Amino acid sequence: MHRVRTFVTSPLPLRLFHRNCLEVKHVGKVGRYPRTFATQAALEPFLNGSSSVYVEEMYLEWQKNPSNVHKSWDVFFRQTSNGAQPGQAYMTPPTLSSAPASVPMTFGTTATLDQKTLDDHLSVQSIIRSYQRRGHNVASLDPLGIADADLDSEIPPELILRNYGLDEQDLDRQFRLPHTTYIGGDKLELPLREIIKRLEDIYCRHIGIEFMFINNLEQTDWIKKRFEPPGILNFSNEEKRLILARLIRSTRFEEFLARKWSSEKRFGLEGCEVLIPATKSVIDVSSMLGVDSFVIGMPHRGRLNVLANVCRKPLEKIICQFDSKLEASDEGSGDVKYHLGMSHERFNRVTNKNIKLAVVANPSHLEAVNPVVQGKTKAEQFYLGDTEGKKVMSILLHGDAAFCGQGVVYETFHLSDLPAYSTHGTIHLVANNQIGFTTDPRFSRSSPYCTDVARVVNAPIFHVNADDPEAVVYVCKVAAEWRSTFGKDVVIDLVSFRRNGHNEIDEPMFTQPLMYKKIAKQPTVMAKYAEKLIAEGTITQQEYEAEVEKYDQICEEAFGLAKKETAMKNTDWLDSPWPDFFKGRDPMKIPSTGLEEETLNHIGTVFSTPPEGDFVVHSGIKRILKARSDMVKNRTADWALGEALTFGSLLRDKIFVRLSGQDVERGTFSHRHHVLHHQNLDKVTYIPLNNLYPTQAKYSVCNSSLSEYAVLGFDVGFSLTEPNSLVIWEAQFGDFHNTAQCIIDQFISGGQAKWVRQSGIVLLLPHGYEGMGPEHSSARLERFLQMSNDDADYFPPEGPNFEIQQLHEINWFVCNVTTPANYFHVMRRQIALPFRKPLIMMTPEACSVIPKLVNFDDMLEGTSFRRLIPDEGPASREREKRGLDEKIVIARVEQISPFPSDLPRKRLRNPNLEHITWVKKNTKHGSPGTTWSQNEDSAEELNSDKEYAGRYPSAAAATGNKQMHLMEISSFMLDAMKI
């Protein structure tokens, strides 16, 4: 039998003690009753005025499992559930000698607590819980008053009084409030009429709260305490003036742009102007709670307003973007004004602190920026040692249709609590214009709300009518406190409208005629709020007009300054500036990447040595470590050891290394094993590369969720923050990068050209035709070459700086390295270069599995990355087997883009050369276009024939038949060796 602790205290509600016992508290009476032994009669002496609370808790336990309560309660609740009338469900239980069979139970009166009274109190408690759960479904959220935010006009049956057996006659009866609500303030009892009124005021007016799905009692109780007590929306006159001032800036900024550039697309904020006070409130409260740096991601709508009035970017820098005659004065193609980012430090007058604000550049409405922001935030937290997210935080702004429509939102939410990816809570602000683009929400989502995706991570969701600025600001305050308290995500759904079409020159009446007839008559939230404050005497009409005129003058002055701008400077729009990185570096020099042998030996030895003590290593890992140790002794390295030497040498030089992706701890092909797991103890691991040197940098190796889109975006964001780090994302198979193609297209291939954003992100894409079928062979090399800005028709002039000049001019490096030594050098080159470019690595699957040893000599001082390797590998063996050593010259291209055109030329200038054959494993139509064309031009220049040897065109990337695979290899090897 489970025993309970007992107390002699003042009368308090009974409560469940842990899961198995009931704690009974009452003056002068002591009870020791396990819950399953607690009969009705035995507990009656202890109930007094607390019976309704006790019964509710017993009922909840009975719902979980009838055996959790005494049989007498089981019978009672079964009868009630079957529709028994008041009084009929009660069965007199056996009496205990310690308590009389019948004791009058009063409830605020002298009346006996009969069965109906008990039923009615249970009903009232159910009503309270129903408003907490479903009140948001009937909240007045639409500023236009024509739509239901949850797409359902029906009143939930849980909110209809008669469904609880109560009617008008019961409204004036007193009911004791349970401890699960705070609506009473300091009152323990209220009339039912007042209970319902208070519940409606809290849950059914301009704020709708979704939180009861959260499976944490502390968190749900915390939210109740923030919303249920009377008088929460109590702002001082100073606070109201601040809200109005921010609304004026938000509204008049859009009106100013509309006057000056009426036919320009700007994707303005009209209809949801409250987004600016909302975002600033989040920042104010978070700053008070200790946050110094904010990383913001958002779509195009409202971006200019956020830059101007949240980040306080100089208005003339924004306005000059509307001058089409101005050309960029620095690198990059630039991007449209509502895609640009920025980084800015400013003084926050509310908290009297300097804060840093970064808005990450983002294409159009895409939610692709979400994981990029999270990665950038995580990196800032890491480099500051902010392990709890108290100093750096992320804010994500969304559109309603994109929030529910794009899968990357879900993927990003699922990173929120993963240790290697968590940013300890993000505040999401949804500018919900109830239309998205031009599609009615009834046809653009299946969920009741656009925010339902947030429920998967137990994030509370605060829906709020965007035309009630005080409700909005209060919700933002609570959201900031939630994030600081629990380190978890929270969503603010600003239910608003869009005054114009999808853009300013679009006609919305084509698709939403009734809505836009209503919008045409709708005053601005600024005007409505000003009218309210004037009516209540908070401000005067003259003060309001003066504030409007003051901001209008600021805009006009900025307009005059913008006319003096002679060129647009793209570097003004950097979201991740690296002010000190380029100082003291020779931009035309590739530093050495070789190392002294002592370092290679030390790293190799530590990497191959099992941990000391009683750490139990898997027997298979022991054999692998022994093989690695033997390689070090023999001065050789396979792919896995070569990679460890690469990472270890960078860690020695205080370069942080982050490897992220699916299976990266052990490696997809079970070759890496950078994290050793204790075979008998959970959560006990050992990372050899974090134990190389006392002052080394940290190595972070992170098995990710089964996501490519969000995780790659996260790592791109991580790479933007600090250039002196090596950030790597590895695909499980190279083929799988296609689900992250949006990140590659938008942020990696063109990031520098559009946004002057350099990133040294490395993509490891296992690639190779090894007979593993069409889904595990090709990393789609041709796609990356199509996105390279390497011109197949242009041969740069050869000279002493040819290689570094090519690296400067290319948008990324695309390599297909085939030896551990070349992998070692190209990865170290990423850090050695005086600038940063993404590196796309077609890492060969076979090299990861089949030992292909290189000598330490290939990694020592004086050695470097080899863009082209002659006369090595399987093709050379094939040539030797056929006795063609004297007749065929073989060269293997390791850096495909930028194509090393200077090296093939040197090898091809041979008077005995008859023809050139371009040999590749991919299908012909997937041929690397750049290299094929340049070899074609080389052949023409040297008066030689050009041939191709490879697989035939196919709709599938590779055959799934092993025999066919071998036949294909035999066929194109035969073609390659023809003379």
Could you walk me through the main structural features you see in this protein, from its secondary elements to its overall organization?
This protein has 5 domains: 15-113, no CATH class; 137-216, no CATH class; 237-321 and 336-573, Thiamin diphosphate (ThDP)-binding fold, Pyr/PP domains (Rossmann fold); 597-767 and 816-866, Rossmann fold, CATH 3.40.50; 873-887 and 898-976, Multifunctional 2-oxoglutarate metabolism enzyme, C-terminal domain (Rossmann fold, 3-Layer(aba) Sandwich). It is 36% helix and 12% strand. Helix 7 (237-260) runs antiparallel to helix 16 (525-535), helix 18 (597-607) packs antiparallel against helix 19 (619-633) and helix 18 (597-607) crosses helix 20 (639-652). The longest helix has 24 residues, at 237-260.
Structural key phrases:
alpha/beta, 979 residues, Rossmann fold, 31 helices, seven-stranded mixed sheet, disordered N terminus, eight-stranded mixed sheet, 36% helix
